Amino acid sequence: MSDLPPMDVAGRTQRLLALLEGAGCEVLLVTNLVDIRYLTGFTGSAGVLAVAPHGSTLVSDGRYRDQAADEVAASGAPAVVSISPTQAGQRLLLAEALGGAATIGLQAAHVSWAAQRSYAADAFPDATLVPTDGLLEGLRAVKDDGEVARLQAAAAIADTALAATRSLLATGPTERAFALALDQEVRRLGAEDVSFETIVGSGPNGAKPHARPSTRFVEAGDLVVIDFGALVDGYHSDMTRTLVVGEPSATQRRMLDLVLASQAAGVAAVAPGVRCSEVDRACREVIADAGWGEAFLHGTGHGVGLDIHEAPAVSTTSTATLVAGHVVTVEPGVYLPEHGGVRIEDTVIVTEGGSRPITLAPKTIAP
Ligand code: ZN
Ligand code: ZN
To answer: Where is the Creatinase N-terminal domain positioned along the sequence (predicted)?
Structure first.
């Protein structure tokens, strides 16, 4: 993975700073670790980033003295690292980094009640704390070329891993054994990890959209829903294919054809300027017209990046509009306990002129 192109990490802080005035704060305390990674390259498990016009400061503890310095320097982020072994010391460093700002933004979705109370009462008693919402979410939703390259590399590993393992299904493994083989292949191909806990749902288990791999043996006549991904430099891939062991029944065949058509309609709808709710509608309509609207149990998709689920949501209620650089999944499904489940999912990049899927494994049903 050493041939991945660089990302413009420094530019992210500049874009964030430009949003602060509109959010009603002079400085922002970033407490979500994934956002900290996005802004600084730091991958540790503890830290707070103070983003201020005069400079950003990453405060962490002694375990990350060298790692934080190395990662921040490698990313090119305009941030300095301050380390203290104690929480009290870290609070002092943060106060220093915020430079007496009168208004401090907090990430409302990523600050616990206890932390907010302690910031207000102990750490910054003289400042006004301002809740902010979705600042980083909006920035992270639009990927740069370096991010797209990582997402594509992750998706390519998943494609290859499925190609290498799918024939195993015909030998009747347990769901868990198949998931393990797939996960191993993903790691063997160079991913740093799997993207999330692999879903393998066979027979009736496939009718539960997020089935965890069980000790059930895959049998002839099963639909098998396989939803998995690879992690490359922090970026997730996400793809679902549904395979059939043996011959599908007439109903299963209808489910497969319908979800395939629904998914294709959704992918075809993805383009800049299109509302995410429209993509959802394109998928849902096909399934509803066939009378199985109630069996499509979830939203159509989600953004993918440093988190497996991020903005923008692709759902009935989503208010987002697609722009070039968004990366979203399109994953309709039909779930009928007596017949099993069918879901087909691709990850799609919104381009200037339309869209381009990056998950390319064939949608054939034979193992
Ligand atoms: Zn998925
Ligand atoms: Zn997904």
So the answer is: 12-142
